[in-house]
Amino acid sequence: MTEVLDKSAVSNMPSFADELVQQATEAGMTVNGRKTKEILIGSVLCRDPPLSVALSGAPVERVTTFKLLGVHVAYDLKWAQHVQSSKVQSCIAPPLPQAAETLGCRPG
């Protein structure tokens, strides 16, 4: 779920989460709040952040980064986390020996 707020708006995410749980229950499914993550992006962090969301009574963990389809997304939308993770993965199994040296990987 995504919600875009301007500076003076109030979050409706708790009611959206409740509606999601209700629809899942009606469809015979369960929403696992312990496996769900929440990330706040942008200027919302500068002011009072909205209250945490709960799914089926379980609080949703608020994170600053998460991995989606192999891409690390950060709260500030910068690429540093993704680049660092990609560099580490390349050092673990570089495609060519020359690539390890270029990436600054240490032997060993």
For the record, give the distance between the C-alpha atoms at the N and C termini, rounded to a whole number. Answer: 43 Å
Residue windows where pLDDT falls under 50 for at least 5 positions:
none
Number of helices: 3
What's the total number of strands? Answer: 6
Quaternary organization: single chain
Radius of gyration: 19 Å
- Give me the secondary-structure category: alpha+beta
Largest sheet report: 2 strands, parallel
**Could you tell me the mean pLDDT?**
76
Strand content: 15-25%
Structure write-up:
This protein is α+β, with helices and mostly antiparallel strands and 108 residues long. The protein has a domain at 1-63. Helices cover 31% and strands 17% of the residues. It has 3 helices and 6 strands; from the N terminus they run H-E-E-E-E-E-E-H-H. It has helices at 13-26, 80-92, 97-103; strands at residues 37-39, 54-55, 58-59, 61-63, 65-68, 71-74. Strands 1-4 form a two-stranded parallel ribbon. It is elongated, with a radius of gyration of 19 Å. The relative contact order is 0.11. The model has no long low-confidence stretch (mean pLDDT 76).
Tags for this model:
108 residues; alpha+beta; two-stranded antiparallel sheet; 3 helices
What's the gist of this structure?
The protein is of the alpha+beta class and 108 residues long. It is 31% helix and 17% strand.
Topology:
Elements (H helix, E strand, L loop, with lengths): L12 H14 L10 E3 L14 E2 L2 E2 L1 E3 L1 E4 L2 E4 L5 H13 L4 H7 L5
Parallel strand pairs: 1-4
Antiparallel strand pairs: 2-3, 5-6
